[in-house]
Amino acid sequence: MENARRVLVTGAVGQIGSELTPALRARYGNENVVAAGHRTKPSAALREAGPFETVDVTVRADLERVVDHYAIDTVYHLAAILSATGERSPGLAWSVNMGGLYNVLEVARERKLRQVFVPSSIAAFGPETPRERTPQETVLRPRTIYGVTKVAGELLGDYYVRRYGLDVRGLRYPGIISSETPPSGGTTDYAVEIFYAAVEGKRYTCFLREDTVLPMMYMPDCIKATLDLMEADPAGLRHRCDFNVAAMSFSAEELALEIQKHVPSFVCDYRPDSRQAIADSWPQTIDDRAARAEWGWKATFDLEAMTADMLVHLGARYKKGTLWPR
Ligand code: SER
Fold first, then answer.
1. Fewest CB within 10 A of the end CB: N or C in the chain?
2. Residue 11 C-alpha to ligand 1 middle, in angstroms?
3. Looking at the predicted structure, is the pLDDT value of residue 2 above 70?
4. 146 catalytic, yes or no?
C-alpha cells in the first residue's frame, strides 16, 4: 500500500465518490482519505471507515479548513450538479460546478498541492459535434449549462497546468452505471434505474426513446480509468483535463433486451421527456485513442458483462432487503 498521500474526495457521497473513496482508502490507507459530502447523508460504511467532513465547495473557507487540517496533498473533486438538475437550476449548476472548481483550483494553487482530479463528461459535446466516434479534438458547443461548466472546467484545469504548473488531470466520463449508489439528476440515470426496476420485478418507463444511443461505462472501469490517469507518468501526457474514454455504447432498447435475457418477464416502455433533447445533443460513440496511447486506457466491461454483474449485485441486495440505501 502506498501511504505517501493525503487525499480529499469532494462529492464522496455521490454515485462515483461512494465507490472511488473506498478504492482510494484501500490504496492509501483509511485515515489518509477524507470523504467530503454536503447535503446527502453518508452511508455508515463511508463515514466509519475513515474521516468524513461536511464541505460546501462553493465556500472556499470550508475547503481551506479541511485541506489544512488534514494536510491534504491530492484532491478528487467530484462534487457537481448533473445535466438534468442543471437545466432546472442553471444558477445552482454554475455556482457549484464553476465556483466549486475555481475554489478547489485556487486552494490547490496557493498550497502547492500535488495533484487535482477534475471530471469532465460527454456533456462537453453538443449538437454540432460528430456523434459517431467523437474525436478527442472536436467542436465543444454544448447546449446544457452542465456542459458549459464542463467545457469551462476542462479549459480552466488546463490553464492551471500551464500557468501555475499545478498537476490537474481529468476525463470525459460517459454515463456511469453502478450498483452501490444511484446517480441523481443526470440524463444517463435511466441506465441505472432500469436495473432497480428489473430486480424488483417492476415495469420500467424509460424517459428516453428506445433508439437513443449513448456512451456508457461500468463503475469498475470508471474507477480504473480515474486511478490510472492519476498515476500515469506526466511525461507521456499530451492532454490533461479532457481525455475521451470509451467502454460501451447501446440504445435504451438494447439495454432492456439484454436485461430480458436474465429476467425474461421484464417489461420496459418509453415515455421521452425533456431529457431526450439533452441526450440527442450528445455523442453516441467515442474515439478514445488519445487515452489509449497516452496512458494505456482500455475498458474491461461491455454491455453483456456489465448487465450480468449489475443483476448479480442488485439481486443479492434485493434478497437481503437492502436494495435501497437507508
Ligand atoms: N451522467 C451525466 C449526466 O447524465 C453526464 O455526465 O448528466
1. C
2. 15
3. no
4. yes
